[in-house]
Amino acid sequence: MNATDAAIAVARRPLVRLNEHWLLAFMLALLHVAIWWDFGGPLSRSMMLAHLGLFLLWQPLWQKDRRVDSRSALAFLVLTFAVVYWLNWWFIFLWLVLLIGLIGGRVFVESRERYASLLALAVVICELLIGCLTPMFGIRRESRTGA
Is residue 141 part of a domain? Predict the structure, then answer.
């Protein structure tokens, strides 16, 4: 990495951190749509693919100012297309548990970011308990609309 790339990376770092909570919010909204609307259908699969794309932008595993090596990128692509192709409740369960771990590990940051992380953690735990576990155990989700 030359000096120009390093300067650009340093200049972009505050912008990425400012938009990090918005990425997390959109990522969780897409996950919600993937779970609750037409699960397993084309809409759900496309929303899950978009969710995983936003996860790649948000993720805390790789440094954002470095390039991802081809081996890691290939592994992520294979896992992404496997999850989208074989989308079922067990994949969603494992994915939500992984997200709970990643988001829960970010709770111990400065106080302003802590509240956003705690809210996201509560959303993902509710999604796991209500949106994922009930269909896994055969409990039907009913909507109570109308009189």
Answer: no
